[in-house]
């Protein structure tokens, strides 16, 4: 493979850890507090500790809610966003799914995310969670309309 088109190797992963560490240290100095220093020397392993903590967290389910919908709702929102990467070209001649309707498919897939947000808010059987889910879905829908017009204006040519 040509070295010019290499995306990221093992060198890129190390740089991400250093950038995350620098971000935490700089934000700690701006906020006049001590930065991460508990995981490894100078807090260099803090990102790994945060990822491990996230994986080991307990999944709290509502006692009176719809448990299947509560689990499926956020998954639908995340999966619809990840599916949109199928039609986005990641490089020259490097597209996961080369379709003639790529732009329209991207718009359709990205409009599924608010359904997952509504499901997550509704399934907890709590009026505050439901209103939060409605608000998040309304925000998602309100930015989708201008984004769709911008994408279509760029991608469609007037003959």
UniProtKB/TrEMBL annotation:
GO terms for cellular component: plasma membrane. The chain crosses the membrane at residues 67-88, 94-120, 141-158. It is a multi-pass membrane protein. GO terms for biological process: aerobic respiration. It comes from the Eukaryota. GO terms for molecular function: NADH dehydrogenase activity. Coiled coil: none annotated. It is found in: Cell membrane; Membrane. Keywords: Membrane, NAD, Transmembrane, Transmembrane helix. The keyword DNA-binding does not apply. Belongs to the complex I subunit 1 family. PANTHER family: NADH DEHYDROGENASE SUBUNIT 1 (PTHR11432), NADH-UBIQUINONE OXIDOREDUCTASE CHAIN 1 (PTHR11432:SF3). This is NdhA. It comes from Panicum hallii. The lineage of its organism: Eukaryota, Viridiplantae, Streptophyta, Embryophyta, Tracheophyta.
């Amino acid at each position: 493979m040509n070295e010019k088109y290499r995306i990221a190797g093992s060198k890129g992963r190390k740089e991400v850890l250093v950038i995350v560490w620098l971000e935490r240290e700089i934000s700690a100095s701006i906020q006049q507090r001590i930065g991460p220093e508990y995981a490894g020397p100078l807090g260099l392993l803090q990102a790994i500790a945060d990822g491990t903590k996230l994986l080991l967290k307990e999944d709290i389910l509502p006692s009176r809610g719809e448990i299947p919908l509560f689990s499926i709702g956020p998954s639908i929102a995340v999966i619809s966003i990840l599916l949109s990467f199928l039609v986005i070209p990641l490089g020259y001649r490097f597209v996961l799914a080369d379709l003639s309707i790529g732009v329209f498919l991207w718009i359709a897939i990205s409009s599924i995310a608010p359904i997952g947000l509504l499901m997550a808010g509704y399934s907890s059987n709590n009026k505050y969670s439901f209103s939060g889910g409605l608000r998040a879905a309304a925000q998602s829908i309100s930015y989708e309309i201008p984004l769709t017009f911008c994408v279509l204006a760029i991608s469609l040519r007037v003959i």
